[in-house]
Amino acid sequence: MHPRFLSLLCCPATHESLSLEASEMGANGTVMTGVLISTSGRRYPIVRGIPRFVGAEYYTSSFGYEWNRWPRVQFEVENVGRTMAGHTTRMWEAATLIGQGKIEGQTIVEFGCGSGRFLDVVRRKGGIAVGIDLSQAVEAAHRNLVGDLNVLIVQGDLFSPPFREGVFDGGYTIGVLHHTPDPAKGLEALVQTLRVGGWAACTVYPRGEFYDYPSVTRLRELHQHLKPLFGYRPALAYAYLSAYVLTPVLGKGKRIPGMARLLDGLEKNWLVILALPDARWRALDIFDAITPSIATTHSGEEVMAWFEQAGCAGMLTTPWCNTSVVGIKSGGVKASTHD
């Protein structure tokens, strides 16, 4: 981390200020090894350039594994000239309702940053990017964005984030809070870190769609039973089998007259299939669907209620899906990014 980010941080337990003791510095002035110390003496290590405010991944271990196995598949630079080119940027813009050039110079936080693909979007749009994740995905994010002095990655609990209140101009969480025990609490914690008038965006799984399919539920439950014995190997094997064999075969089968309905039923009830055009993305997203220990689905009305509970106004459903909502932290003038 760069020392200039210290002003954003606080002790997650007491909200006290933190002081910095650096023991190893990088060539660009970043702290690679050191410790953050609260006023009352709580100590949080900085390891490999990442401030660590938790000692375990808890319910997020599958994501630590996932994002370190596929750290850059969804980055724009890895998709130039490919079928998924531009997808990550389009998704971020649709989920936040922010177009080109509207966050330049703003400090933006992401709750659940994974390997950092959306932080990369924020940086390319001129924003200062801060990401927090509970899992070891922070290792991949730090590697992907290392050397950029306008990026801070921290490992911490989304429910008790190590950020001061009101320090960010905007914040978002995309495809994350449905993997936590209390999505509404997670959104509330994000909003507390925003300045009055700052924008918030949240996207979660919609009820009744892919992540609610019996096939996905069955494989997710099977993975949880097999994981103590075999780790992630069965889920990984299925993800590659589905991505590189089952999806192409079923896709061709659906073009046979009279077969589409039968194969759709097979897909919905027994086989987890994703018809994305890039097999790398298919493997990643199938693994992502069948391995989390928590994966809830929601309605648009629920997400709107979370925003109200968190103290937001001016909520809008975004074009991404009916459970993708943006709002403004109440108490000040509406932020221009969502005018």
Overall tally of structural domains = 2
| Mean pLDDT score | 95
Query: Which segments are poorly predicted (pLDDT under 50) over 5 or more consecutive residues?
Result: 332-339
Query: Order of strands in the sheet with the most strands?
Result: 7-6-5-8-9-11-10
In CATH terms, the superfamily of the largest domain is Vaccinia Virus protein VP39
H/E topology pattern: EEEEHHEHEHEEHEHHHHHEE
Estimate the global geometry from the Cα principal axes.
globular
Q: Please give the largest β-sheet.
A: 7 strands, mixed
How much of the polypeptide forms β-strand, as a percent range?
15-25%
Proportion of helical residues: 25-40%
Count of strand segments: 11
Mind telling me which CATH architecture of the largest domain this is?
Answer: 3-Layer(aba) Sandwich
Short description:
The chain is 34% helix and 20% strand. With 339 residues, the chain is α/β, with parallel strands linked by helices. Mean pLDDT is 95; it is low at 332-339.
Structure in words:
- By secondary structure, the protein is α/β, with parallel strands linked by helices.
- It has 2 domains: about 55-205 and about 300-339, Vaccinia Virus protein VP39 (Rossmann fold, 3-Layer(aba) Sandwich), CATH 3.40.50; about 210-290.
- The two termini are about 35 Å apart.
- The protein is about 35% helix and about 20% strand.
- Strand 10 and strand 11 (about 325-330) form a beta hairpin.
- The strands form 2 sheets. It has a 7-stranded mixed beta sheet with strand order 7-6-5-8-9-11-10, sandwiched between helices.
